[in-house]
From TrEMBL:
Sequence similarity: Belongs to the acetyltransferase Eis family.
Domain N-acetyltransferase: start-end pairs: 3-177
InterPro entries: Acetyltransf_17, Acetyltransferase_Eis, Acyl_CoA_acyltransferase, Eis_dom, GNAT_dom, NAcTrfase_Eis, SCP2_sterol-bd_dom_sf
Chain residues that bind acetyl-CoA: R114, R115, G116, L117, L118, R119, S142, E143
Keyword Transcription regulation: no
Record-linked PROSITE patterns: GNAT
SUPFAM superfamilies for the chain: Acyl-CoA N-acyltransferases (Nat), SCP-like
UniProt-recorded name of the protein: GNAT family N-acetyltransferase
Keywords attached to this entry: Acyltransferase, Transferase
Residues forming the catalytic site: Y147, F431
One Pfam family this sequence matches: Acetyltransf_9
Subunit structure: Homohexamer; trimer of dimers.
PANTHER family: N-ACETYLTRANSFERASE EIS
Amino acid sequence: MTIEIRPVTRDEAPAYLRVLPYVNGLPHWEPAPAAWHGGPEAWPPPNRPATPEQVARWVEEVVTAGHFHPQAAFDGGKVVGGSAMLSLAITVPGLREVPFGGVTATAVIATHRRRGLLRGMMQAMFDEALDRGEPLAALSASEGGIYGRYGFAPATRRTRWDLDRAEAAFADADPPAGSLELVDAATTRQAWPRVHEEARRRQVGELRPVPGKWDGLSDDATGPDGPTRYLIHRCPQGDVDGVANFRLPWTPLVEHTGTLVVDALQAASVDAYRAMWMLLTDFDLTRRVTAPTRPADEPLRWMLRNPRALRVTRQSDNLWLRVLDLPAALTARSYDTTADLTIAVDADPMCPRNTGTWRLSATPDGATCTPTRTRPDLTLTVQALGSLYLGGMSAALLAAAGHIRPHHDGAVPALGRLFRTDPEPFNSFAF
Ligand SMILES: CC(=O)SCCNC(=O)CCNC(=O)[C@H](O)C(C)(C)COP(=O)(O)OP(=O)(O)OC[C@H]1O[C@@H](n2cnc3c(N)ncnc32)[C@H](O)[C@@H]1OP(=O)(O)O
């Protein structure tokens, strides 16, 4: 078997797409209970294999979108695996925007798995991302056991929670300022980009969406999931500052009847956030609300008279991060404290320039990161650095798990103080 790994030409794009599970109708999410997806079901229903018209439409998107960079593995000229990077941007500590390569649309056909094809494509994508000046890579992992070996590690979390309507009383029941409106999909397609743009600039971990992200929203009912309904909030001046997509799905299971599912909710103000949740948690003829893709630290809990009523029913990793260019990444974010720390990174064969000892001199105004020969304060894996980068992971926890090795007392607390951010990083959607 001679495998060739290289970018995909326009003529090869249909064959690249057809190896992908979401195109050929094979499972593309891990089944429960370890599933990373947020839906209430044990395993999401499979897609039907794409029609030739759909493939033709996606080919146009793949080859014409400047931000889409596909790679494929060829065996005897036939596409047997594919992966792609999207050029995106993420909000990092200091509320700065940093470009990154988002790994997506990845698969190797069943006959060619476990032979290093994904490793080969990943290496090609890392090299291209570095050439484009993207110091980070990120992804959502279909399975938790695959991506650590390429240097990725969980950097944000997401939770699914349930709240029974009978327990959803708010501690402060006064109506928030502004007004709510139930709207159609066309209005929502306009509202989402505005609200998300405002919110993502204030939330570490949030992503700049790809063009057309909300174009697919519709008012059509699709099967038992029911049509998506849309809610917006306007501030007293009339501007939209909150938006939510929710459903009232039909189910044959008595225990799931009367469930209102909030698929997405984003607010650019506290009033919009509180007003939307007040309506959605007290919807007539429902019993409970379930929200599948929410931050681990949901302010709603602390708005309730009974905070315990909001029950987390699934928690999983969300965005996995990989530092490709260590000095560029560490100087792209800011730090709340002033500190000098010397960190050594274990061997990183896929991005060898990361390996070595680095002196990070951080202040709230900026940081420098330069190679040094001095004795390090601590040694860590590139995975630990990926988990720490957005400020959501405890350095003490990673040290206790053996991913950080301090060389003197005080090194791990100093690292923790330097990297931690509040609130916890969160990305409201994947790519
Ligand atoms: C970011 C996303 O797009 S998520 C979607 C990912 N796609 C899927 O899950 C679709 C179904 N799965 C697949 O198509 C393939 O299994 C892939 C793409 C995940 C992996 O492709 P492969 O070419 O088999 O991976 P590759 O051979 O490079 O694997 C490298 C290592 O990962 C291991 N590995 C790969 N997949 C798995 C897995 N599912 N579970 C456990 N280990 C795995 C291999 O055994 C190998 O181990 P080694 O480094 O110790 O030798």
